[in-house]
From TrEMBL, chains A, B:
The lineage of its organism: Bacteria, Bacillati, Bacillota, Bacilli, Bacillales. PANTHER family: ACETYLORNITHINE DEACETYLASE (PTHR43808), PEPTIDASE M20 DIMERISATION DOMAIN-CONTAINING PROTEIN (PTHR43808:SF25). NCBIfam families: DapE-ArgE (TIGR01910), PRK06915.1 (NF005373). Keywords: Cobalt, Hydrolase, Metal-binding, Zinc. It comes from Bacillus salacetis. This is Peptidase. Transmembrane segments: none annotated.
């Protein structure tokens, strides 16, 4: 099929796409505040003419699933949104999934622009969520609208999903799966910088409680500083990360400096400058390879922490406590020669006149829930860049949104097939 | 003068003293919540028959004093309390000063008792503030009441002060000084474990802001972790502490493992387990020797932090920021042969039949404000122990409260002199 009309339509919509992305960024959809950004999505889905399913997640509907791991009880007012474009029948279906939640903006002083302004400058749109992944969601909607606007009649269904909770472990996508939404393939436009990721790293959040002994700061030698003990734990985690990444042979990780990082995301200790703190709380995430199980990695970290007492007797009588909480992303993978990979790769080749770069994702996505939980082949492919995600001055190139929309539209045509009339 | 009657009266009041201390501990007088514990003090002062002066500190009255350093704007509802026992005239006056504020209880799990219960067991009373310094305040009130009850008529005035804000830099004692309260000597019964401290270490609170660079945890190598950079700052502070304590020759510091400690009291960084944090905030206190100036020590710490870039180029482009905030205690000292030291030492000798142990305090007190700001000779002498201060399971021995009350009553008699009728 000749996709010229689809392509031309997409490129004619640059101004509208930028405006939609700006509106999405301007609604600060951090955890628990997703409703206004979802309202923008709903409005757009209505405009395109998708069949909407808007619902508030009920904890009881998902909490018994083995992949459920969520420390949020109340989802009221902040719905999941699904928009379906029914096909004519007889074709393969596709899920196009994006998450609406964004991580907090961090230290505002590090931003050169208001993180929720959506400034458009030099072909880039700036703001928290631009790259992770409201830009990707705009690409999905642009692709779907292009197919609709140019009169392409698909055999298979498109199931567009705008989910909450991805940044906290995927309760949104899990809820969509358990509501019955499945498909023959799924694309998630997380920031791959237009690379194809058939493998996704999983990850888990952990919390480590480190004990000290209180004392007055003026006689700090009478106490044991939990901050100093916490530093030993940080060093131990750094060593474990090194060990876990020494012998990764999978060529898809060839360009990735640390395939399965351990990130120390939070260190909190002490309440009073003149007191020796007696507790340090360390939170972070540990990457899980597609070849690993969550349980195996849990044991490895536990074992690593038990070794703390070898170098410091303090930990013998005061062992640290390891907790698994919040976010938990299953790893996922499909073979590089899977038909779905072939369809998306061909679409890429058509658009760029060169084959795609294929790598493994350095982070967890909701893809693991779809593939491990729903047996759906998943490919991560999107316009943003990992470097910009979660960073200050997060941005996305508008050009890449349009390019990825073109690839996705073309891939949908190949996968879902066209009904010629 | 024969102090037998005073002594007997003090020892007859053990039950009442314990009860008063328990009532004080049960009122959780952390910063901003001092009013109920002050009400207990006020009631007791009324009972003894002291002339009360109860007032709320006005920031404008003290904020222009060079020793003012306070990040609290609102003192309303939480007064300073002074109770005066006027002498007959012609004698030296004395300030007996105790602070009513306590530091937070810390990790409650580390306590074997409710930190605000005031449990009395095996001759000890337990709870936050028992040793620092509600036990000392009870000793002061016991000494004053003993003099009153046994009909001792002093020539000089006793000015009893129950102040707020000591743990945060001394705004309470500064306000009392600027309200006009001065004297020929002052005893502060901070926890010296019945030793005499004619020299007091000063201290200052500092805050260090350490920059990183945000990134997604899955590609943490794209960012710079502020926690890791913060650890380098902690190490640097540890080195500075070592250097500053290498050549302390003053024999009064002979038994103190670290005469002028640098305490890291707080380390906070990061908000999200899957993000690389871009800011770490470190708070602590640095000890200031009686031979040093605050300004000199400020410069030394600043210079030390500037050296961070020698080992790590990151700090060259991202220097840390040093702030001086909150608590600030002037160092203080009087000569060991000062007449006031002689009076208190003689009182001690009478009670214990052995000379007092004389040391330098390992922590700052409000004494520096009285001595440097009011030219008042100050001695720190109290029943608590430094080890127990700011710690979980803080306690005080009841016996020592009674002993210190006896020494203080006797010292007051020597210093203020008795009017024989």
């Amino acid at each position: 099929m000749d996709n010229t009309a689809v392509k031309e339509w997409i490129y004619s919509q640059e101004t509208q796409a930028v405006r939609l992305l700006q509106k999405l960024i301007q609604e600060k959809s951090v955890r628990g505040q997703e409703s206004k950004a979802q309202a923008v999505i709903i409005e757009k889905c209505r405009e395109i003419g998708l069949q909407l399913d808007i619902w508030e997640i009920q904890k009881k509907d998902i909490m018994n699933h083995p992949f459920y791991r969520c420390d949020r009880d109340d989802f009221s007012g902040n719905p999941n949104v699904i928009g379906v474009l029914k096909g004519q029948g007889g074709g393969r279906s596709i899920i196009l999934n994006g998450h609406i939640d964004v991580v907090p903006e961090g230290d505002e002083a590090a931003w050169n622009v208001d993180p929720f302004s959506g400034v458009h400058r030099n072909g880039k749109v700036f703001g928290r969520g631009a790259t992770d992944m409201k830009g990707g969601t705009v690409a999905l909607l642009l692709a779907i609208e292009a197919l609709k606007a140019t009169g392409v009649l698909l055999k298979g269904d498109i199931i567009f999903q705008s989910v909450i909770e991805e940044e906290s472990g995927g309760a949104g996508t899990l809820a969509a799966l358990l509501r019955g939404y499945t498909a023959d393939g799924a694309i998630i436009p997380e920031p791959t910088n237009l690379k194809l990721f058939p493998k996704q790293q999983g990850s888990m959040w952990f919390r480590i409680l480190v004990k000290g002994k209180q004392a007055h700061g003026g006689t700090r030698y009478e106490g044991v500083n939990a901050i100093e003990k916490g530093l030993e734990v940080v060093k131990r985690l750094q060593d474990l990360e090194k060990k876990r990444n020494e012998n990764v042979l999978d060529p898809l990780y060839g360009n990735i400096p640390i395939p399965f990082p351990i990130n120390i995301g939070k260190f909190e200790s002490g309440k009073w400058p003149s007191s020796v703190p007696d507790l340090a709380v360390i939170e972070g995430r540990i990457g899980v390879g597609p070849h690993e199980t969550m349980e195996g990695v849990e044991k490895e970290l536990q074992y690593c922490l038990e070794g703390l007492s070898e170098k410091d007797r303090w930990f013998e009588d005061h062992p640290v406590t390891l907790e698994w909480f919040g976010g938990r992303w299953q790893p996922g993978s499909i073979e590089s020669d899977h038909p779905f990979m072939e369809a998306v790769s061909e679409a890429y080749l058509e658009v760029f006149d060169s084959p795609p770069v294929i790598e493994a994702s350095p982070w967890g996505t909701d893809g693991g829930i779809l593939s491990k939980g729903g047996n759906i082949p998943v490919i991560i492919f999107g316009p943003g860049t990992t470097e910009s995600a979660h960073d200050a001055n997060e941005f996305i190139e508008v050009r890449k949104i349009l390019q990825s929309a073109e690839v996705i539209a073309s891939a949908v045509i190949k996968w879902c097939e066209v009904e010629y009339q």
